[in-house]
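Fold in tokens:
===
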Amino acid sequence: MEGSEKDKMLAGELYHPSAPELQVELAACAAWLARYNAAMGEPADVWHRLLQERVPAAGEGVMVRPPFYCDYGFNLRLGARVFLNYNCVILDTALVSIGDDTRIGPAVQIYTADHPRDPAVRRSGLEKGVPVTIGKNVWIGGGAIILPGVSIGDDAIVGAGSVVTRDVPAGATVAGNPARVLND
């Protein structure tokens, strides 16, 4: 694909994350995160106003407790009443979409950044982003890790500390490393 490294990143193609244009974006996000995380002692409405500066789609009643960390912010879509507890990390080199009423525990990590499996390509420093989609009314327990490309269906539960390596069906409860559907 022709175009800027940011264009390639947004298209899900291999790109150079060290490109100057992306370094400018990362620095802008880091400056915003410093302000956001410094507001920890402020009321939630201050957090929401700050969140809207960087996150283009932050629904009504969203609460993201600082400290919070992401790469860019512009690749996040947070539905109404989404809740992220303290110390969440979202590597948003691709779109991360979180549906209405989803609850995410502390220290959850969501990754879209992926690296080539071919060692020669990986050595070149290229990477790509693979979107993550989390449905409505999902509960993700503290310390869970969601890997690139995963979709989690509506009403699912992800147990604390789980590593989610593949899609989770709607209504399913998964736990473990790797996360597996539990028999109720």
